[in-house]
Amino acid sequence: MDSGDAVPFTAIAIGNGSSGAGTRDIAPPPAAVPPRRSLFARFLRRETKTRGGWKRGLAIFDFLLRILAIAALVAAAILMGTDDDTLPFFTEDYQFSANFADLPAFTFLVIADGIAAGYLLLSIPFSIVCIVRPVFSCPRLFLLIFDLLAVALTVAAAASAAAIVYLAHTGNSKANWVPFCIRFQDFCQQSSGAVVATFVGALIVMLMVVMSALALRKK
Do you know which NCBIfam families this protein is assigned to (predicted)? Predict the structure, then answer.
């Protein structure tokens, strides 16, 4: 062989002995990275399971309390709005009677209870939304704000009416005011029941405010 001739080059493939000399080891393909949407969906599902459980329980309890508050305030408004009493005796020029409309505090109680009960009835759809979507904060914030207004309205009405009822039961010796309820017992009992029912409704709404605040707190 002359020194100027090119030496031939032969490529030799080194393979696995068990699979033959002409085959190569092939690495497995890399694992597919899940898309971001599926990761976000799993994260949202996990958040719903961990946080939505107790919030949904609060929302269901809030719904039941809302129904009870409506019943208490409607009962109070009916009791006070139908409060009327007339004594069996009268004179030639005057008949002794008592009506809730004669006292502005009692009229205010009827109006306040009606407004609060109407709001609570309209707020039921928002309470249902909180049950279906417990993670959403907008409906709870709406309920928290307007529940506070309902508490302020009902407590103010109940407090003013309670002062009149107390004065009607006890009178005032310094002002020479005799107890009004000595004669109008039925009227005073019915008005007292309306005041108690209003306070019960206000306490229920206060409890709903606390529950909404707990549901809105951050972990």
Answer: A_tha_TIGR01569 (TIGR01569)
Nearest residue to 215 (alpha-carbon basis) of 69, 59, 61: 59
Counting the structural domains of the chain, the total is: 1
Structural domain of 187: 65-87+97-216
Residues 54 and 47 sit within 8 Å (Cβ to Cβ): no
Question: For residue 69, is it within any domain?
Answer: yes
> What pairs with residue 97 in β-bridges?
86
**152 is a domain residue:** yes
The tens digit of pLDDT for each residue in 55-83 reads: 788 888 999 999 999 999 999 999 999 98
Is 204 a domain residue? yes
- Tell me whether residue 49 is in a domain: no
pTM above 0.85, yes or no: no
**Burial classification of residue 53, based on how many CB atoms lie within 10 Å of its CB (0-12 exposed, 13-18 middle, 19 or more buried):** exposed
